[in-house]
Here is the input.
Amino acid sequence: MKTLFDLFLTFARIGLFTFGGGYAMIPLIESTCVVKKEWITHDEMMDITVIAESTPGPVAINCAMYVGMKKKGIPGAAAATLGVILPSFLIILLISFFFDRFLEIKWVSSAFRGIKIAVGILIADAAVRMILKTEKKPLNITIAAVSFAAVMLINVFALRLSSVVIMLAAAAVSLAVYLAGRRKEKGAKK
Amino acid sequence: MILLELFLGFLLIGCFSFGGAYGAIPLIREVVLYFGWLDDEKLSYMIAVSESTPGPIMVNMATYIGSSRAGVPGAVIATAAVVLPAFLIVIVITAALKNVIKKDAPQAVLKGLKSCVIGIILATGVYMILTNCVGSINSISVDIAAICLTAGLSVFRFGTKKVIKKDVSPVILIFLAGIAGVLIYGWN
Here is the structure.
């Protein structure tokens, strides 16, 4: 019980002090869980980050889940997750009660008209950053380019096609290319 | 009914949010517009608020939309739904599949997903910038102030990256854009 509470409190503190979420939290999780609390080793932390990147959901929350799971099984994972979410949940809940009335103030709505423009830039910038970091193999580039074109068309012409369909198609193509490559390799060995 | 919609919508988002903080935004936009929970304008306001408050954007968006649609129960259900897929997957992976996910075939699937998400995020960002500057295909309206602001903020964002070799935090960019908004569109 004491460990569960400790997990909850520790992750609540991490959740409260990281703006922007995601990768911003990882250094803090590392310094708290590896160095200070010694809940997991540095290698485990590396492992967790890699797996967290391969599973859906915000990386920081996945990390909290893994650390909790390691320490105390499913109740531990639940306590850590609850902790990391709770601060932002309460803050946003409070904002949601006042946001609409707040927007009725002229200078606030003016500010948000400007902010809207920053949001578009931040999203495009996030994508550019991912492109710079990714492996530039022909298959990856093709998939990214086709997905980009498809979603642009969907947006501009308001087509009814979900991006989930595009994601599943991309996963299928990537798997098919991998399997075809492996079969060829086997054939060559024979 | 609205609670069920919130649950299913955010469950879907939770299942397909690969690719870090911004990875979920295109799908959130799609789901939110489909159900008519928010319009594009309000959605980008909330992305800015989520970015400027603690916590992952995806979870903050779920909390806000849940709360604005169905009060505290809505906020709880949407937030729970958006983290539930990750929670279950983490439990299964740590219990049984820890090594499977590092094998080649699952990694091939993930690489396909990641490349696809990059394309989708870029398209979403570019489309948002386009609608800000020239409107949508059904209502084309060229907004000179928005174009100037887009150019100015982009130069600032990418310029500081080149000059001081460090990124300005998104919060600072949002703050500056807010000040510019007040100057351009007026106080009262």
Remarks:
- Chain B touches chain A through 104 residues (CB under 8 Å).
